[in-house]
């Protein structure tokens, strides 16, 4: 009986040792930060669409209250501005001065709608400040990113004009919560080009299979991450950027759910 007890004890000891080794190995992996997270910015870390709507409504109210422009005319001015921006925003990605570009569009629609008396510099500053006011990373997201930095290397990979993106990144203080930042406008290529994802891995000092992509745009983030050979892609559900032909590895409804998915991946 004593022999059997000793055998059982040795077996348990062996099992415990193996479990301990696996746990230690897993802990070392995280401690060494040899896993990478590539994060989208707009719509993922900050709610850019909400900021845009707020700034446009603020611009409309400004025209009505400051210059006594009829609400219908102010609404028309804003709608024409949005239409012109959407038509030509891809062309501005690699240009240096997006502020000048946006200001010129505002000036055009104001003149076209007989509102040339609007002082463009003051108006544009008000519009821009209204936009940046809502560009922020939520407290709970900041806390999550701080925790993840203990175990993962994190990099932001965002599409857009360098000047405009840098201002948003600065306002949100995103640099405090990541290891590096890549802006497509500074490299003359945009997501979903796999070269940008490969550059992100290179900057983190990791292989593609050690990194995952997290974003709200299926074409830019998920399709791009897949073609770059990343370990996994996580889509933050967003109806505006859905695409049935592109299937992510994981789907979440909020960036704060990221930690629970990472446990399944690594």
UniProtKB/TrEMBL annotation:
Q: Which InterPro entries match?
A: HAD-like_hydrolase, HAD-like_sf, HAD-SF_hydro_IA, HAD_2, HAD_sf
Listed NCBIfam families: HAD-SF-IA-v1
GO molecular function ontology, one term from the record:
N-acylneuraminate-9-phosphatase activity
Pfam short name (any one): HAD_2
Q: Which UniProt keywords apply?
A: Hydrolase, Magnesium
**Which cofactor(s) are needed, names only?**
Mg(2+)
What is the recorded name of this protein? N-acylneuraminate-9-phosphatase
- List the GO biological process terms: N-acetylneuraminate biosynthetic process
